[in-house]
Amino acid sequence: MLTPMKLLLIEDDPSMQAALQRALGRRGMEVLGCTDGRKALALWTAAQPDVVVLDLSLPGLDGLQVLEQARRQGLATPVLILTARGTVGDRIVGLNLGADDYLPKPFDLDELEARLRALSRRRTASGSEPGAGDHLVGQLRYEKDSGAIYHRDQILELTPRELALLQALIVKPGQAVSKEKLFELVFPGEADVQYEAVEVVVYRLRKKMAHTGVTLVTLRGLGYLLKVDTQ
Predict the structure, then answer these.
(1) Which of 44, 50, 142, 212 could disulfide-pair with 170, CB 3.0 to 4.6 Å?
(2) Do residues 140 and 40 share a domain?
(3) What is the pTM of this model?
(4) Mean pLDDT of residues grouped by 10 in the chain (231 residues)?
(5) Does residue 78 contact residue 103 with C-beta atoms inside 8 Å?
(6) Is residue 63 within 8 Å of 56, Cβ to Cβ?
(7) Does one domain contain both 27 and 118?
């Protein structure tokens, strides 16, 4: 028997939420409801839904703030924005913050279901949810099985040395890794290379991470660490 899709519905209109819970429940989905933006993030983290339906007009935090904070925390669940605020500007901001789809109100229930199932299939096919051995730092995900590092669902294009350095840091988020340790991992067995070569790799990697929401920080005398950007 197939496991039903688990859907988190973040919608502040009680009548809309109740109607969607009933309708989507009859279509074989397990629907969890939330009406408050501040509570939504905690429920999202605890429930680990397959897809999130997110309204923009919410109390506490609005939908765009919820989405931005979720992506900063490494929550990679596909998100469909569902709102009466159907302007092009809202749509662009939502997609830039990490939304996967956008459906303005009023909408057709069959179209909503089709979009939700498409997002769920895409998630399963891409493996966007972290596996048991994966490491998350903000919007970066290190997939240990393949060795790849993703920004959201896109593989970061890194040289072997940049990849080795970032792998060493991402498994210890917020902890400094010494230059000596990084040198051993990035330049194994290369006795003719100076320790300062690590700084060159750090410089190049930092440029490639400029738009990921994660910063490679230098701590003088201690080494380097990864820090999730905050506003």
Answers:
(1) 142
(2) no
(3) 0.55
(4) 81 91 92 90 87 87 86 81 67 72 84 86 56 75 83 84 92 86 87 86 93 90 86 50
(5) no
(6) yes
(7) yes
